């Protein structure tokens, strides 16, 4: 994997079941330098999608994740890498690195 598209789906309000967790935007801001530093050989593209505001021009794939969050199947922030679900709710580094190492 030489390229990785990282998408964080989130909202301004902290998820109700994610008390004391960072906001979606903070998670997005934290992920970028962290992944770039840990995997310098990979070219990352980062996208933040606000599930309440960014509702136009989304792919069906993005729309499906947003619907699953709105139906409480998944929590936000939700992280996908190359369109694959990685983690949701309280995002932890070991979950992300385990995913990256599998495909690295």
Task: Let me know the largest β-sheet.
Answer: 4 strands, mixed
Poorly predicted ranges: none
**Morphology:** globular
Total beta strand runs: 4
Structural class: alpha+beta
Order of helices and strands: EHEHEEH
Give the termini distance in whole angstroms. Answer: 6 Å
Strand order of the largest sheet: 2-1-3-4
Annotation field: number of helices = 3
Organism: Staphylococcus gallinarum
InterPro entries: DUF1462, Thioredoxin-like_sf, YuzD-like_sp
Pfam families: DUF1462
Protein name: DUF1462 family protein
Q: How are the SSEs placed, and which strands pair?
A:
Blueprint: E1 3-10, H1 24-38, E2 43-50, H2 60-70, E3 78-81, E4 84-88, H3 93-103
Q: What characteristics describe this protein?
A:
104 residues, alpha+beta, Glutaredoxin, four-stranded mixed β-sheet, 3 helices, 4 strands, globular, DUF1462 family protein, DUF1462, Thioredoxin-like_sf, YuzD-like_sp
Question: What would your notes on this structure say?
Answer:
The chain is of the alpha+beta class and 104 residues long. The chain contains three helices and four strands; from the N terminus they run E-H-E-H-E-E-H. Strands 2-1-3-4 form a four-stranded mixed sheet, with helices on both faces.
């Amino acid at each position: 994997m030489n390229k990785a598209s990282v998408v964080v789906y989130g909202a301004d309000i902290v998820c109700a079941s994610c008390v004391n967790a960072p906001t979606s935007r903070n998670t997005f801001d934290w992920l970028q330098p962290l992944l770039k530093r840990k995997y310098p050989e990979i070219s990352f593209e980062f996208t933040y999608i606000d599930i309440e505001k960014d509702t136009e021009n989304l792919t069906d794939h993005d729309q499906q994740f947003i619907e699953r969050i709105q139906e409480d199947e998944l929590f936000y922030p939700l992280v996908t890498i190359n369109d694959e679900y990685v983690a949701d709710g309280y995002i932890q580094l070991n979950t992300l690195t385990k995913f990256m190492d599998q495909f690295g």
